[in-house]
Amino acid sequence: MNYAMTLFLAQVGGTTPPTSSTPPAAVAAAGGGEGGRTLLQYISDGGMLSYVLILLSVVAVTLMVRSALVLRRMLFLPPPLMQEISALAAAGDVAGLNIAAGRSDAFAPRVIYGGLRRAASSPLGMMEFRSAAEEEMNKEAERLHRMNDALAIIAAVAPMLGLLGTVIGMIGAFGAISSLQGAARSNELARFMSMALVNTAEGLVIAIPATVVFGLCRRRIESLVDECGDAIEPIAAMLQKTVAGGARPHAQRPPVAGVAKVAANG
Q1: Cα–Cα nearest to 119, from 229, 240, 228, 238
Q2: What is the domain range of residue 185?
Q3: Cα separations (Å) of 76 from 41, 65, 119?
Q4: Scanning 68, 76, 129, 141, which has the fewest C-beta atoms within 10 Å of its C-beta?
């Protein structure tokens, strides 16, 4: 009875009555298949700036991986080489110390090698090593910070590019509202609004991790540089003790008063 009534109402209304042969899964798939979108479609909705932001994200990930590989303790303080350098410094073997420090590209040996070169050309000799090593350490730390600054630039530029895409999308949306009518206006309005939001989201997705990694890398650089300074300090003390003998430039004594008078009278 109910099925007959339903069939009658469907025929009066001009619609096709539901049949038991139609599976529910097929009906659900037909109703929800048009709403699914892929990531590439969202990127395409963002326009040209979206692809620029994707390229910028690849550069940011590359810089993050490079920082993770470079900022390792092994590349700052290689244990076997630092033990050899400490033994050479304790023995006062400056020539061997120069060779050992010069054959490595690690942070601390490079600082020691630069300090030895500066001390060799200084009139004070090894007394100049500590200050020369500090200057070399500041130079090397500045080089690492410059490498890390690229992430800060990306973290600052990505939201600006996203905002630019947002502005372009909003301009297009208002243009569509003023110039189109009906379904065409709705389609263009949806397209430009999608462009605006996709670019905003991409800029933030790039900027947030880049900012976090930049801060972590900066803290890591400062920590490793301080650790290298603590390791180089006893080497500088041993060099001053064994090579320079702790000697300091002697201050010129003032002349004795009687000798000064005789010299003045003469």
Answers
A1: 240
A2: 45-246
A3: 45, 17, 22
A4: 68
